Amino acid sequence: MIVVTAPTGQIGSALVRRLLEQDEPVRVVVRDPGRLAPDVRDQVEVVTGSHAEPAVLDQALPGADALLWLVPPDRSAPDVREHYLRYATVAADAVRRHGTGRVVGISSAGHGWTEPAGVLSAAFAMDEELAGSGAAYRALSMPFYMENLLGQLDSISGAGVFSLAAPADRPFATVATADVAEAAADLLTDRGWQGQGDVPLFGPDRLTPDQMAEVMSGELGRPVAYRSLTLEELAAGMRTAGARDRAVRDTTDVFAAHAGGIYDADWAAARLGSTDFAAWCRTVLRPQAQAHPAWR
Questions:
Q1: Per the domain annotation, does 75 fall within a domain?
Q2: Residue at 192 is within a domain
Q3: E-state strands within the chain
Q4: Which of 139, 267, 150, 243 lies closest to 197, judged by CA?
Q5: What's the pTM value of the predicted model, to 2 decimals?
Q6: For the chain, how big is the Rg over CA atoms in Å?
Q7: Range of the domain at 90
Q8: Mean pLDDT of successive 10-residue segments in the chain (296 residues)?
């Protein structure tokens, strides 16, 4: 039995389908079972509730030999590290109680980075907690998700601009969530690994943001430009949107760490996914951009 947390998100939903296609028995932990696709709901065991609750995990883990652990984002959380550790502590305790053999965590690349890195540092703290649970543990470790760019559909579809707090001419590490789901499925169905470790997973491209804009332009059939933000501009924009000071600091720390090379060592040795940026723009970005109200 494989237990999947956060099964309605981009990674979890794709992962569950992959596991079912491989005839794996799957149990999901979900707050709202109504968000599961009907054909999926009919093929999985459902435990209703939050995987931050020990009682919910006590329903989910009996008989499970593998667990996919994903901490859901919470922009209202006052401290992202405490948010991750709250989930991780509950998970590690439950894994010990039930003797779950293998755990795969959705984490960040850049293990060993010692400077503040916002949510990335929080993910590293989660990994440490789960690695101490007694289970074999793999931290599936990624850079920037391509799907994060969907948060800029207004600007991409309307103004033909996307922005990051990253230099225009330096390669920017990305990965598609479909490739994350594939790698997670491989780990969860492989009964042979033991011990603890991290598995960096990156997309196959080494594109700069300027090159990403060129690819977007070609796939969307209209010009798209890249705008490089300073950390100060990023912070100001977040504050204007109502973000708390801690959230602003956590986000700017992520981009400062990226500029400082947090992903460089992992990028050189990572497993490479199959989805290049052009394919992602063609299959994911373009349909959503063209359906957006700002598209003209």
A1: yes
A2: yes
A3: 2-5, 26-30, 45-48, 66-69, 102-108, 136-142, 144-145, 161-164, 174-175, 196-202, 225-228, 271-272
A4: 139
A5: 0.95
A6: 19
A7: 2-144+175-202
A8: 96 97 97 94 96 96 97 83 94 97 97 92 96 96 97 95 96 98 98 95 98 98 96 90 86 93 94 97 97 90
